Every structure is written in C-alpha cells, then in structure tokens.
From TrEMBL:
Molecular function GO terms recorded: DNA-binding transcription factor activity; transcription cis-regulatory region binding
Organism: Candidatus Pantoea soli
Record carries keyword Repressor: yes
PROSITE patterns listed in its UniProt record: HTH_LACI_1, HTH_LACI_2
Entry superkingdom: Bacteria
This protein's name: LacI family DNA-binding transcriptional regulator
Residue span(s) of domain HTH lacI-type: 7-64
Keywords tagged on the record: DNA-binding, Plasmid, Repressor, Transcription, Transcription regulation
Pfam families: LacI (PF00356), Peripla_BP_3 (PF13377)
NCBIfam families, A to Z: fruct_sucro_rep
GO biological process: response to fructose
Keyword Repressor in annotation: yes
Upper classification of the organism: Bacteria, Pseudomonadati, Pseudomonadota, Gammaproteobacteria, Enterobacterales
SMART domains named in the record: HTH_LACI
Database matches in CDD domains: HTH_LacI, PBP1_FruR
C-alpha cells in the first residue's frame, strides 16, 4: 500500500517555481503586502487549492502561542441536554474559527481527571466542564495554567467562573402546580444526591410542596443516577412497592424521564392518570399521548454565555461577572388544575 504524505509549503513552492519563503508569504496572506507579483500569488494559491494544501496547526500554535482549540468535558454525550449544549457550542466555535474537543466522563471523577489531562496535553486554550467532582481543588489549580469555566454543576462555595441555570425557582413553581392537583402523593426521582443538580432540584421540589401546603413523606424521595436505566428501575420498583402506578412524579432530568416513559410504554400506562413532570424539556414530549410539564432550560443561551466567558478569559479580558445564573421557563402541557 502506498504511504500517504501531506502536502507542505516546500511542495507548493517547488511546483510554483518560487522559494519556500515566497510561498509562505503568499499562503499566510502577506504576499500583496510585501509586493509579491500578482501572477506569482495567483499561481501559488491555485496550486495550493488543487493539491488541498492546509497550513499546519502546529506551526500556527507556535506562531500565535495558542491552539485555537477549546475543550468540553461532559458526563455523558448521549444525554439530551448535554448533546444539545455540545451542538450549540460546536457551532459557536466553528463560526469563530475554533476547534472543539469533547470528552465524556461517565460520571466518574477518576476518568474525569484522565480526560482533562488529555485535553491539557493537547494544549487546549481553555476548558468548559460539567464536573462530577465534589471539590473544585483540581480545577482551581488548573486555572493557574488556563481558563476553566464550570457549567450546569458547581461545587459548594466555588469561586471559579460558572454558568448554570437556576434549578430551584422554576422547579418550585412546577411542583407547586403539580402538588395542588395531587396533594396525596407526589414522588421525586433524582440522580446522585451528592451532585448539585440533584440538590438544587430537590430543594425546589420541597419548596413547591411547602407552597402547596403538602407535607412530604420520606419515602417520596428516591435517588438513583442520571442514566435512563436508573429512571426505569426506580419507577419499576416504585410501582412494585405500591402495587400500582403512583399518582404523580417529578423527575430531576430528561434522562430519568426517558426511563420512566419506557416503563410506562411497556406496561401500557401512557394513557393512565399518572401525572408526570420533569426538569429539562425534549421536543418529542409534544408527540406523546401523556402530557408532560417541564422546566425548560435555554440551552443555546447557556452555550453562548459559556463561550463568551471562556473566550474573554482566554483573551485576557476581565468579564463584568465571573458567575452567571440563567433563568428557566415552564413548559406546561397538562390542563390547568388537572
């Protein structure tokens, strides 16, 4: 098999019959400025196009002292919310001439350290991280080398740059509405209790019950993890324990609702009287026979805020605020008072 070889500036220079220095000036956009003849410039550029010449990113890195690459670390790329965020962020990077490298941690702090080290070794200019860690110590230390922006999740009292959605306020509003219609029984299905999204959404859940005058029972609070399989297992166990479906549930994330819906579909419960609500919206909820009320995050704005903050820090600018808490909206599909 013939070994392939990348086309270099030296190759283009030889084909054009000019020096490597002249070809370099033209390909770096400085040919006209330094008075390289028009015919020579056109010949070099035409040959570069014909031979699919691309400038070396390593040479650009040495010249600019930047890689023009950002790193994104998420727990799970198949999670709908993180997938939409990644897509929005990648679009922003592409428009700005930047490359986005995405790594997944599977909610494992040890794996998170490995993928972060790999991204740093590839000389990313900055990191955006939805962390599974309980302490910000590693990222505080890393921020001395390059900018780090946390998103979606935070460690208690962290002073690191942070962009996230307010989980407590809209969850309380949604759960209050749900509890007024179902005061006898409403269950919370959440992820790992140590993670800030779980803590915040549970706090909103409790506030919503209090506003509706409903006293929660300890058995109403059920924790698993944020994989769809966990939502399925928690809901299945709950139905088995009750000997029937619950009257109402609130899931702390879209992935958990996915598992619940799979169980309900398999057991022909989608047309039942179970009231369901969730944090995070999904466009497919509009196509279901069951009405799902949700807290909807503005994911494009979340991505834009992270991008703007990180690129400002990379550029040496001082943002007006290092931490942003964005509002969310309610997406109501069930009839009022139902």
């Amino acid at each position: 098999m013939r070994k392939t070889r990348r086309v270099t500036i030296a190759d283009i220079a030889a084909l054009a019959g000019v020096s490597k220095a002249t070809a370099s000036l033209v390909l770096n956009g400085r040919g006209k400025e330094l008075r390289v003849a028009k015919e020579t410039r056109e010949r070099v550029l035409t040959l570069a196009r014909e031979h699919h010449y691309q400038a070396s990113i390593h040479a650009r890195l040495l010249r600019d002292n930047r890689s023009h690459t950002l790193g994104l670390v998420v727990p799970e790329i198949t999670n709908h919310g993180f997938a939409v965020f990644s897509h929005a962020l990648e679009n922003l990077c592409r428009e700005a001439g930047l490359q986005l490298l995405i790594s997944c941690t599977d909610e494992n702090a040890g794996q998170e350290r490995v993928v972060v080290d790999n991204l740093v070794a590839r000389q990313v200019d900055g990191l955006i991280v939805a962390s599974s860690m309980l302490s910000d110590t590693d990222y505080v230390r890393l921020s001395e080398q390059l900018p780090v922006v946390l998103f979606d999740r935070y460690m208690s009292e962290t002073q690191l740059p942070l962009v996230m959605t307010d989980s407590v306020t809209p969850t309380a509003e949604l759960v209050e509405r749900l509890a007024r219609a179902n005061p006898e029984e409403i269950y919370f299905l959440g992820g790992q209790p140590r993670l800030s999204p779980t803590r915040d959404r549970l706090a909103g859940f409790m506030q919503g019950l209090a506003r509706a005058g409903v006293t929660p029972r300890p058995e109403w609070i059920i924790h698993g993890n944020y994989h769809p399989s966990s939502g399925y297992e928690m809901f299945a166990a709950l139905c088995a324990r009750l000997g029937r479906p619950p009257q109402a549930i609130f899931t702390a994330a879209c992935g958990l609702m996915e598992g619940v819906l799979r169980y309900m579909s398999q057991h022909h419960l989608l047309n039942s009287q179970v009231r369901v609500a969730s944090f995070d919206d999904h466009y497919l909820y509009d196509s279901l026979s069951i009405a799902i009320d949700t807290v909807e995050q503005d994911v494009p704005r979340l991505a834009q805020e992270c991008f703007t903050l990180l690129t400002a820090l990379i550029g040496g600018d001082e943002p007006a605020s290092l931490q942003s808490i964005l509002p969310a909206t309610l997406r109501l599909r069930s009839p009022a008072g139902a």
